[in-house]
Amino acid sequence: xxxxxxxxxxxxxxxxxxxxxxxxxxxxxxxxxxxxxxxxxxxxxxxxxxxxxxxxxxxxxxxxxxxxxxxxxxxxxxxxxxxxxxxxxxxxxxxxxxxxxxxxxxxxxxxxxxxxxxxxxxxxxxxxxxxxxxxxxxxxxxxxxxxxxxxxxxxxxxxxxxxxxxxxxxxxxxxxxxxxxxxxxxxxxxxxxxxxxxxxxxxxxxxxxxxxxxxxxxxxxxxxxxxxxxxxxxxxxxxxxxxxxxxxxxxxxxxxxxxxxxxxxxxxxxxxxxxxxxxxxxxxxxxxxxxxxxxxxxxxxxxxxxxxxxxxxxxxxxxxxxxxxxxxxxxxxxxxxxxxxxxxxxxxxxxxxxxxxxxxxxxxxxxxxxxxxxxxxxxxxxxxxxxxxxxxxxxxxxxxxxxxxxxxxxxxxxxxxxxxxxxxxxxxxxxxxxxxxxxxxxxxxxxxxxxxxxxxxxxxxxxxxxxxxxxxxxxxxxxxxxxxxxxxxxxxxxxxxxxxxxxxxxxxxxxxxxxxxxxxxxxxxxxxxxxxxxxxxxxxxxxxxxxxxxxxxxxxxx
Amino acid sequence: xxxxxxxxxxxxxxxxxxxxxxxxxxxxxxxxxxxxxxxxxxxxxxxxxxxxxxxxxxxxxxxxxxxxxxxxxxxxxxxxxxxxxxxxxxxxxxxxxxxxxxxxxxxxxxxxxxxxxxxxxxxxxxxxxxxxxxxxxxxxxxxxxxxxxxxxxxxxxxxxxxxxxxxxxxxxxxxxxxxxxxxxxxxxxxxxxxxxxxxxxxxxxxxxxxxxxxxxxxxxxxxxxxxxxxxxxxxxxxxxxxxxxxxxxxxxxxxxxxxxxxxxxxxxxxxxxxxxxxxxxxxxxxxxxxxxxxxxx
Lengths: 558, 297
Description:
The complex is a heterodimer.
Chain A: H1 18-37, E1 107-114, H2 126-135, E2 138-145, H3 149-158, E3 165-169, H4 177-184, H5 189-192, H6 201-204, H7 208-211, E4 215-216, E5 219-220, E6 223-226, E7 232-236, H8 238-243, H9 253-263, H10 278-284, E8 291-293, E9 299-301, H11 308-320, H12 328-331, H13 335-343, E10 349-353, H14 357-360, E11 369-370, E12 383-384, E13 389-395, H15 401-414, H16 421-428, E14 435-438, E15 441-444, H17 446-452, H18 475-486, E16 490-491, H19 501-522, H20 530-557
Helix pairs in contact in A: 1-3, 10-11, 19-20
Chain B: H1 15-43, H2 47-52, H3 66-72, H4 77-107, H5 114-123, H6 131-140, H7 148-151, H8 158-169, H9 173-181, H10 186-197, H11 199-215, H12 218-223, H13 232-242, H14 260-290
């Protein structure tokens, strides 16, 4: 597969020849149709066929040595398994963790995917100016909206317009990322592997689950931005549930069904759910996290698990019983309306990603709980873990060691742990402009929230924490307790950090095919038995090949 | 019922028929107006009322301009509106200029390379070049991060040329002959005869071009890396996308989520109003121009 060689892309200084155009169009054509069909493959709504789209085939260099970061004592301690620390508020006088000058006054051109609005220009953003001063750099972000990343990224690659530093969101499944990294980005193994990472103390505080995402072709190419290991949660509107005389914490499938029926009151417009809870049902039935690696080293997808079809059959029955909001087909993709219906009590339960607790808990008057997962016959369910990192940041290929060191010092600053002075600056900016202090707690202003959309804070980082001082009372304790209960149920995806060429090229379309089949069963358009044929089609369409490739990659990784 | 000897369509309609027609028109109008009303009402509603009504409000009990304040306070929306207006005006004028000239030239029988050029233009209707080749071409022409990248790549559409050319060909040949007898050259004929008679089709094509430029977000996404240059549609898109996921600031303690649904609706209202303002001035040309090409000969 031809690839742009970093040293060969100098067409901007020449006229556009037919050869150059065809060469680059061919390269980008390899990225565009693949990345165009590669939808987000993580989080809720996906299972069975996913894996790591572009991560390690082999861990040939040791992981960076973990050194617990210096951080303020939390209110509630987290754990190495992934339970998050809880803080009452953001300490405003935290310690400095990075000393000395970071940058060299040069430009820091970085590609950042953003979930927010375009940030104000630097001359109108005190936050941006403060970061430039702290880092001793001129930060110049190239912001790309998250939904358009797979459109913009191939164009930038084709035009050789990638900036010097690139933060790649891992769930976007950038096509052929290992090959792209090898061709265009710097191998950071000698700077980060083993004890070498200790030179950057905050990077050393990133845990293993995060670092595994920085591996490509067995080498370390990127610094991760860690994500919580917990994937999804069911939030319960306890006031609505208790008013219906139901138990908000069922212990098995039958109690869950009873709860759903008890809270549903179509005349009052109250329903149990307003979206697809297929993943929750699969976890309840013990369906594995996308893949299972058997003792003989072979990989079997979750779609082939014996509990998959029965789980979907139960889901379809639940939908048929009328416990789902009539607008469920549109609510599946309309998070804004779903959240509004939950807050107003029209939905008794809301199934969403773990970050959604902030959305539902931003109102002190919202009364809610988080449902502890359970097995269909009682006992523990399984809880699929996420990938461990949200993004990975790389530096374009260079032999300039000083430049690489500066890049890592910048990321070391950005990855400073919660409660540190650096983290406070990254999160809050300038007092009086970006944040105000109310009752001893820093609160972002509207302007501060907007300036935060610069996005620089999200290109590197260690474990996240729970801290919602503005939210419903006790929401962090609630989430912390929930996480501790769920830790024994955590189930990793054995293919999470393995590379499969078939997954990269066909994974998204195969995944969509299965999701469509599941949705058809859920909404009653097809019977559950149709899933058998859908799985067979998935297998022959590329699933079996993926299984083989993952097995080979796992054997190589050891 | 018609009078004896009069055609049915000239007969005076019965009151019942008139009433039924009026009712049908009212219902159809309501169906059309209802979504617009919902959009405006939701944009002016409070977060509490929006939550209570499950996301959409038909009639706000308490007016709140919080959403509009959120949008215009310190955001790029005001600037992006100016950019969108500028790109739309310049782009429409430029596209009309190119389209009319091309259509006129290709409508004159016997003009140099007429057949070859027409075939070349029609060929582009069959397939597009693809996103990456266009991006590379824009880059090589030095248009990346310039507003010309939003105008020039899509300035001329073969479809519009065919429409305008067909209209011009419908102008009686005698007018051209008379003008030539009076000593008018091709430019004079274009300016004094063709353009005045082509107001309808130019209005329609111009309106479609303007709407296209106004709504375009894909070009800015690809070609403008500087977010300060983004036009309204792309900025709006980031608002809408933001409100469907947790904002980047949401993980920061003390973050308070904005009223998302009302902000989305306010954006729709802001983006729709300029086009609604332009339409009334062009409707008198629309009905005539829409029929261009509908009747052969």
